[in-house]
Hints:
Layout: H1 2-48, H2 64-71, E1 77-81, H3 85-89, H4 94-106, E2 111-115, H5 123-132, E3 140-145, E4 148-153, E5 158-161, E6 170-174, H6 176-188, E7 194-201, E8 204-205, H7 212-224, E9 228-233, E10 246-250, H8 258-269, E11 277-281, H9 290-298, E12 301-310, E13 316-323, E14 328-339, E15 355-356, E16 361-365, E17 369-370, E18 373-380, E19 385-389, H10 402-406, H11 410-423, E20 441-452, E21 455-464, H12 472-475, H13 482-494, E22 505-506, H14 516-546
Parallel strand pairs: 1-2, 7-9, 7-10, 10-11, 11-21
Antiparallel strand pairs: 1-3, 3-4, 5-6, 6-22, 7-8, 12-16, 12-19, 13-14, 14-15, 14-18, 17-18, 18-20, 20-21
Amino acid sequence: MNNESQKERKPFNKRKLKYGTAATVITVFVIAVIVFINLIAGILTEKKGLKIDLTSEKYFDISQDTIDYIKNIDSDVTIEVFSKKEDLENNNYYKMVVETLAKYEQNSDHITVNYYDITQNPDVVNKYSASYGGELSKGNIVIACGDRVKVTSLDGLFNIESASAYSAGSIKSYKGEQEITSAVMNVTNADPISVAIIAKYNGESIYHADLGYAMNSLVSLLHKNGYEYTVVDILTEELSDEDYDMAILPAPVNDLTADSIDKIEDFLYNDGKLDKNFVYIADILQRKTPNIDDFLEVWGLKVGGNQVIESESDKIQQINIARNTYGMAQQVKAPVAQISDEEYSEGLSNTKLPIVAPASRNIELLFDTNVDRTTKAILKTSSSSILYPLNMQETEEVSLDADADAASDEDEEAEEETEAEEETQPATEFDAENAERGENVVMAAAEKTANTNGSEHKNVVLAVGGASFTDPCITGVSTYNNAEFMINAINKICGKENSIIIAEKNFESTAIDVTDSQLTFIMWLTVLIIPFVVVVCGVVVYVMRRNK
């Protein structure tokens, strides 16, 4: 009996062994394939950046504009991070920097990223100290191409709100891609365009204090797009043709002297060689500027004494602009402007984004063509816009006596502030309903051309109706096209091709505003309506099943 039972079990055991072995082999094979796939995926992820960034602001990724730019650079760039990589990866914020830099290396054969513990590798600091000319320390990031070096820091890649007496500082946004791409553009440009920003007159700021944030934003845009700039005092310094390719006059509160205007004209003439450019930014906060007006008139441009406003609500953007030294935001209704010259739309990554012209004066074109000069409108408001007359004050005489300047007291300063406020006041008794409506130019260009020895040379004068066009509340977000359009226009007049505008990545959560009626509806929906529907459905299903 036992022998027969054992014989009967043998076929079963063989079959079990057969299938068990096959299952084991299949399992081992599947595990091996999975391990192999993971290894390949790890290698591809590390080398090719095959990671998916699911964060709303793409904190760990870089934009396609940056990718397109770095793929086309033909110079070797080294990015040296003076911190240990593993330390950065253990920090939620600095991990973004590591991932961002990895994207640069993955998308360009000419970019190399290295991490150093400078306490163990002091030679790497000495390597760049001479080219940089400053002090380098832990946490610095060096971007180098040959002898050209730019330095930022880990903390410099974030916007940090300063701590107050009652609260600690907090990180508001990430600007790592902005800073790194800007640095790469700077170090790979062997012959950058040099800009003289005429922002001083006799040692004092030339523009109204309320425009400080807008002017800083413009300078930042230039710097991040590879321009080199120098702040110039038009009274005491020269506009050297050898040192500068372009000059910018940003919304002077008072008129310039005839001698200062001569400096600008001589700069543009360039001993007959031309090839210099000039940007004039007007604003509603200016006083009357007859000398500047005469200069512009020769170029066929006239900045009017009016503010352009929009009468149709669907052609207005309700925006904030930063005002005064405390950065308080002022809400304004900004007309939407349209591009009127296709040449200046070339190169824009997205022409569908709106361009706004807050607090802008109108610009008249005095002629289309006059001998060697031509004019063109670049930005216009709609045919329903109107001109709001400004009560502009006479320009104020600036004292050149240092002792007299030093002797000015607080009462005089208060009087100047009062006068500055008066400059912004519109003329009284304005009838907006019956005002004439029509297109108004808010950005224009004038060109002068000359042929020398068979080659064409030219000057371009670009006029902008308002300094708030580059306000940081507008240029710091991706909602509007002002930043890219401004840089694109300056690139056009300078013959510069590359420009990249990258918005900061905000960490702040977006609040959802809910009205009282909406809140009541949501409460009834969740507390009563949805439970009632569920109960009704349950009863219907129960009845249907019971009657089957």
